[in-house]
Design brief:
By secondary structure, this protein is of the alpha+beta class. The protein has 4 helices and 4 strands; from the N terminus they run ααββααββ. The chain has helices at about 5-30, 35-40, 65-90, 95-115, and strands spanning about 40-45, 45-55, 120-125, 130.
């Protein structure tokens, strides 16, 4: 019997794929490319791979260089993921479920990186603005 996925299941599947791709890309950047040692690699005139250990929320805001600060960010990210999962469970459109899944997967990947490395691994750099 064929069973189609519900919108929340689609979102969860997307979240899982994004989480796995996030973990694999960070592992590749850290262990294969060894970007921490190389610091930056020019790929295109407007695009580099640049190593940034992000201890803040975004773009250097709300620095969390202490254990307590990191714990607050991890807890906050879990609360946000919980809110997003609740929203996903109520999704009414396929695109909404997919985008929520993408955000959830990325948030879980960044949260795990913050636990493992005490910072988020950012390396995508467009015109000097690392993501």
């Amino acid at each position: 019997m064929k069973r189609d996925l519900t919108l929340p299941q689609w979102g969860a599947l997307v979240a899982l794929v994004v989480f796995v791709l996030d973990r694999l890309s960070k592992w590749w950047i850290l262990n294969i490319v060894d970007l921490p040692a190389r610091r930056s690699i020019e790929v295109l005139p407007f695009f580099d791979l640049s190593m940034v250990w992000n201890e803040s929320v975004s773009f250097g805001m709300f620095q969390a260089g202490t254990v307590a600060g990191r714990a607050v960010l991890v807890i906050f990210s879990r609360l946000v993921v919980g809110f997003l999962v609740k929203w996903l469970l109520e999704a009414e459109r396929w695109l909404q479920a997919v985008f929520l899944g993408m955000i959830i997967g990325g948030a879980l990947g960044n949260g795990l990186a913050r636990v493992i490395y005490c910072a988020v691994v950012d390396f995508v750099d467009f015109l000097g603005l690392a993501f």
